[in-house]
Amino acid sequence: MTTFIEVDTLKNYIAGNWEEADKTTAVMNPATGEEIVQVPLSNQEQVNKAVAAAKQAQRKWALVPAPQRAEVLYRMGNLMKENKERLSRILTMENGKVLEEARGEVQEGIDMAFYMAGEGRRLFGQTTPAELKDKFAISQRCPVGVVGIITPWNFPIAIATWKSFPAIVAGNAVIWKPATETPLMAYELAKIFAEAGLPDGVLNVVFGSGSVVGDAMVHHDDIRVISFTGSNDTGRQIAAKCGQQLKKVSLEMGGKNAVIVMDDADLELAAEGIIWSAFGTSGQRCTACSRVIVHENVKAKLEERLLEKMKHLTIGNGLDETIKVGPIINEAGLNKIKRYVEIGKEEGATLLAGGEVWQGELGGNFFSPTLFTDATPTMRISQEEIFGPVVSLIPVKSFAEAIEVNNGVSYGLSSSIFTKDVNRVFQAQRDLDTGIVYVNAGTTGAEIHLPFGGTKGTGNGHRDSGVQALDVFTEWKAVYIDYSGKLQRAQIDIE
Ligand code: UN1
After folding, report:
1. Which of the chain's termini has less CB crowding within 10 Å, N or C?
2. Contact at 8 Å (CB) between 318 and 32?
3. Residue whose CA is closest, atom 3 of ligand 1?
4. Domains of the chain: which residue ranges?
């Protein structure tokens, strides 16, 4: 146990109190296989208790002027900044991502704090002309009430801030179920919320499994919104259950993101972009590049450059600053990657590099960066999310074919094109059907003040982060104020 982690057993955070749970399970450092902390496996009762506390706290919180609510987020941002290094190290220990990327993720949370704090003085609605004389019409955002957020292990702090900060600045109270693999970021963030002066009960953390805690949240009548990031399967189940209850649900469920490399591309830049977005975070990003759609004229040259760069991808514990590729989150993740590599081989793609479990001295779960080539667009390795350091080259003959291949998957999160042709740049940004498009950059690296999310199987039309996140956590209210002193009938008394 290192000095960064202060406790042996985590507790739920309900109504401002740390509450012990009856059952716990071990959280492992994925780089070493060592236990770092015990996390509660809570039950429905604890969810009910948290919701009751949230409901009570929310009534008062909604009456606090939004600029004052935002003050808490400014303090959050400052406290996260002061603690950036410590948070980053804990993040690397529980999630495995290399320290440089952990710092980037914590920064993403800090950016979100200051950005959403600014929303405390905006939360804009509209003032519009009314149809009738002496009548005033506005629309305004109102909090929904108690909202549920369910966050994944791959961005345990950034995604939590994308969801909780807009919810809180808009006047909601939050029940948060973090992934059991990465509970320490939730523990740390809850402590910072308390230190920043968030009233008790406005943020509640209930640790536990999706099937118990997540399900109890989804079915609780007093939770009016569920915002979920995770797998497509789980997202579909949540959406179906929420649909039955007419509960609003916002889903972000991954991608099968491609980099397109045209024959006029700067190949060195393209190779750098592919390496970073395919093998950074060991490919465990929703936005990770897992397909490279390459013009056949430059395929051989691109392969050469990628192979050369892959030689420098050091694998190991992310706390060591010389390491570029950290571990895979757990054995199940590792087994899934192994399975897909076998599938790729069986399907007839050519394995150029990697393809194996990396056996270091460390005892964690590692997979070597893997490059397939001559994959076809319909192979399973070209269609299904692998969530690991595996990328497949798909050769194409034209720009039009590249777009078609990019769009020919069930996901629609991120895409990218490397080209120097300005006309193709504009055509591509129009025709690529993903929620995020990059030109001359890889598929990762979204900034928090823009909407994050995607089309088709990636989501259900909502967005995380950006001003658009407020739409998830607010209801629109249209207000008409008639100051004519007489009954005026809309659409009728229009003379
Ligand atoms: C995710 O993988 O779920 O754009 C989030 C990016 C990061 C966020 C990724 N800013 O890659």
Report:
1. C
2. no
3. 286
4. 12-253, 257-439
